[in-house]
Amino acid sequence: MPRRDLWQRYRKNRAAVLGLGVFGAVAATAILGPLFYRRDPWAFATRPFLWPGSRPEFPLGSDAMGRDVLAGVIHGAWVSLLIGLTATAASVGIGMTIGAFAGYFRGWADDALMRFTEVFQTIPNFIFVIVLVAIFKPSIRTIVLAIAIVSWPPIARLVRAEFLTLRQREFVQACIVLGMSESRIIWRQILPNCLAPVIVLGSIMVATAILVEAGLAFLGLGDPNVVSWGKMIGDGRGSLRTAWYLSAIPGMAILLTVLSLNLVGEGLNDAFNSRLDRR
Amino acid sequence: MRLQLGRFLVRRLAQAVLTVVCIAILNFLLLHLAPGDVADVLAGEAGAADARYVAELREKFGLDQSIAVQLGRYLWSIGRLDLGQSLRYQMPVFRLILQRLSPTLLLMVASLATAFVGGLVLGVTASRRARSMVDNVISVLALLAYATPLFWLGLMLIVLLTLKLGLLPAGGMYTIGATQTPVAHALDVLRHLILPATTLALFYMATYTRLMRASMLEVLGSDFVRTAHAKGLSEWRVLYGHALRNAILPMVTLLGVQVGSLLGGAVVVEVVFAWPGLGRLAFEAIFQRDINLLLGILLLSSCLVIVVNLAVDLLYTRLDPRIVLD
Of A76, A42, A63, which Cα lies nearest the Cα of A244? Predict the structure, then answer.
């Protein structure tokens, strides 16, 4: 696929370009932030309840224990992106495998796998994540796995539908006639052709995963060893009356990140689909 | 027709039962995969579990028996609506959940109704003048609402409406200690309901608005709408009398899809507003490490999703007689 073409079409959606910029800024904060802003988010650095802007060394103020809010926000960016991206990668992996098998082999394999998918779609996602994390103890790894376990069904259904149609196309028939092995046809021939919608759905799933992680941390089910945005909001809740900025600031960070990812997803959708329109 | 409906119901019920059994098996697997044996998971983590209770649990699950026998026992007890004891509350999980169900249902119905009506009106308004100023403002607001964490929105509404303006109560379901007439009591609950219901509704209102706008734009381009215009009907009649009826079907579908996510959203909203429902119960269960109670909530909330989806399917056939139950 010509990359420059794709970018040309993506660029037409100005909101999507803005979203990409914001997401780039969040990613840069997560990766480069700790290198330039070295204050430890756990350290008791100053007097408590410093309002944002009141002291230049602490641009976003300090919390109830005198910890630097900006350091926490930077650290939280890293945690959110790490969990959002790895959980989505894992659930895309699960969903693609199940969808590919169901769509390629059809018949009873399809029936069984789709029943299985329906069961997972019936269980309320967030409550399922809570139960998983509570049973297996909160840590980055269990949170990522729990989010992956609940969020693969839409990917599986999407990939299955793509496989059902692509399997009938001439190039796949040609591969079968050529005697290509089934696993090669599945992974090397059909799968690359259904990546576009998977990427669009994936970008929105990253946003959802970030929201789920924030919700978990807010409920006290975050990894106890990391500072995340949801945990900061939960911690700030106790002093809502006097220091509402403690909850407001990390919430704005979540809002911006999730919004930017949704815009990127929409832009990618437009860019990929206009390619289909022209064909 | 009636015969067809009967057969449809029987088949869907059979499917529903199968799904519930699958989820129960999943619960069982979770208990076994967790570190420690089942009795440890269910009791040990609650801290103060006494030895007799643990022994009782081991006896009940038959931990010395094969896995298949254990699974059979587990399913049998769930079939009799016995979801075990909650350690913290010292009462059956099933009864506990039933007690807490109605506040959650009230919250969910209020939010869904708000989201549905709000999304409908906003979506229709936006579609009427596509790409106008009004449309753009509505679309941006929907995008923002779609990206906002529910619990954060709730906290910010408390800051603004309760702490700064003093308009609405920040939490709970009714004023404690007040003796009231039934009417005053209902009004009191309503006042407490406004904030949590609005918080939970905004996200869904955003999705309904976007869907309604897209769906209306499609319908507004069709021939029968042009005919309605041509025969001189008012704008209002065309929009709400003709186009809306045809654009509303996808909204009903979304209703069924979203019940599960709505239940999840209710958890954080109930925690923020101290609303005494299922979500708040789940939150307490997390802290008491009351795994049995958590698993019970998971199972019964899944059942709720199944029931609502069945209802949506039936409603669907009423809205569009062309749809054949299958």
Answer: A63
